[in-house]
Model the fold of this input.
Amino acid sequence: MNNNGQLKTMHPVSLYVGILLFFKVARAPLAILAFWGSVMSVQAAIDVYEFKSPQDEARFERFVAELRCPKCQNQNLAGSDSQIAQDLRRELHRMINEGRDDDDIVEFMVNRYGDYVLYKPRLQDSTAMLWFGPLALFCIGFAAVMWIARKRRLAVSTHEPEAIDRSALEAMLKKDNDENSR
Done:
C-alpha cells in the first residue's frame, strides 16, 4: 500500500519476468518429482510370483487372462490393478502351487464370485440366454426381413392395371379433338 491507502499495482513486465523466473527455478524439482512418482507407480503394479515349473506359470498366465476382475468392468485379472484382483492373483498362485487342478480352481472362483468371474460362462440354464439369445434374435430378424420382402414382392406381382373402358377413352379423345379444332 502507498501513503494514500491504495494498493500498488505491479508493472506487467515485472510480473511476467517473475513468473518466468519461478518456472525456470521450479522446473527441475518438479520434473524430478514427476519422474519419481511415475517410477513408484510402475514399481507398485508389478507382482512377482515364483512357480515350481514353467507349466504352472503358463497355467497362471492363462487363468489371469481368462478370469474377470469382480470389481472392474470388463477387465481380466492380468489387466486390473484393483485390490481384489491382486488378492485373486495371490489366491490363484497359492492354489496352483498347492497342485490343485484347473476344474477345482474354476469351481472355487465361481462359488466365491459367481459366473461373472468367467469371461466364457458355462452352458447351463441360467446362461442359456447368453449363448442362444443372439442367434435367436438374428433368426427372428432374418425371418422378419424375408416376410416383408415376400409381402412386397407379392403385392407388386398381383397389382394389375385397371381395365380401361375403350369407349370412355375414345369419347375423351373425341372431346379433346373437338375442343382443339375450334
In short: The chain has a mean pLDDT of 76. The radius of gyration is 39 Å.
